[in-house]
Fold:
Amino acid sequence: MVNNAEVLLHALDYIEDNIAGEITLQELADDCYVSVSSLQKTFKYVFHVSV
Structure:
């Protein structure tokens, strides 16, 4: 099981690595091995902004 901190760190790395291109929520969630819903909830809870 992956914890929320690891998911968010991985998500931020993925966003940084792919910032020049188009990133979908599904691609991001797939790369983090979580559901889109889980990623959105965790991201919003920690950063107070949506993905």
